[in-house]
């Protein structure tokens, strides 16, 4: 899982310590562990994660995926919304589109209040359908945005699509629970 990915990235960084992608991937592995509340991988996962993300941004050289992932980490882990959104906007402007970059910028735009950008970016990946390996995450992000917009039935449907694409994606269950709580319905609970 995340601990193995982090250790592999650390080994790669021993050989290429300035590699922005390796720095970003290592930070992302820690971020995933932090966000899911899993056991610590390092002595201070949050500090190491943020340090790696900042180092990746310093070396990004216009790489939209590195900028988006590292900016997302600044938002989710460091709670540095300004720097995170600055990286997010730079990633959008840098193009070209990449499914994962587009999902990240969509999610971070939603978390920081720009639902128009969020729905545009998430919608671009959702339009690719399950042939995109990141469809499940875009569908879940769309469910989240629909909850924010008060469209609970639509949110419920998007969360179910996310689960059908990746049944082990816990955030889709969170969206399903939230949508159904707003709808006052928990009949689905026994089926999932």
Fold and architecture overview:
Helix content is 73%, strand content 0%. With 192 residues, the protein is an all-alpha fold.
What secondary-structure arrangement, pairings included, does this model have?
Blueprint: H1 2-15, H2 20-36, H3 45-58, H4 64-78, H5 81-94, H6 99-111, H7 115-126, H8 135-148, H9 152-165, H10 170-183
Compact summary:
The protein has 192 residues and is mostly helical. It is built from ten helices and no strands. α5 runs antiparallel to α6 (99-111) and α6 (99-111) runs parallel beside α8 (135-148).
Element pattern in H and E: HHHHHHHHHH
Structural class: mainly alpha
How many DSSP H or I helices? 10
Question: Which blocks of ≥5 consecutive residues have pLDDT under 50?
Answer: none
Report, as a whole number of angstroms, the end-to-end distance. Answer: 24 Å
Oligomer: single chain
Instruction: Provide the β-strand percentage band.
Output: under 5%
Rg, rounded, reads 17 Å
Shape by Cα distribution: globular
* Amount of helix: over 70%
What are the defining features of this structure?
192 residues
């Amino acid at each position: 899982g995340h601990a193995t990915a982090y250790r592999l990235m650390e080994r790669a960084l021993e050989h290429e310590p300035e590699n922005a992608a390796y720095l970003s991937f290592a930070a992302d592995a820690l971020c995933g562990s932090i966000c899911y509340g899993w056991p610590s991988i390092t002595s201070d996962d949050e500090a190491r994660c943020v340090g790696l993300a900042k180092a990746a941004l310093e070396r990004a050289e216009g790489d939209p995926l590195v900028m988006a992932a590292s900016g997302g980490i600044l938002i989710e882990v460091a709670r540095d919304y300004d720097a995170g959104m600055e990286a997010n906007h730079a990633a959008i402007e840098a193009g070209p589109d990449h499914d994962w970059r587009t999902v990240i910028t969509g999610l971070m735009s939603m978390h920081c209040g720009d639902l128009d950008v969020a729905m545009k970016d998430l919608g671009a990946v959702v339009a690719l359908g399950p042939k995109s390996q990141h469809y499940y995450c875009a569908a879940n992000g769309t469910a989240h945005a629909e909850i924010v917009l008060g469209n609970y039935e639509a949110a419920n449907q998007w969360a179910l699509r996310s689960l059908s694409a990746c049944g082990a994606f816990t955030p889709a269950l969170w969206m399903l629970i939230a949508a159904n709580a707003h709808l006052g319905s928990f009949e689905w609970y026994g089926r999932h």
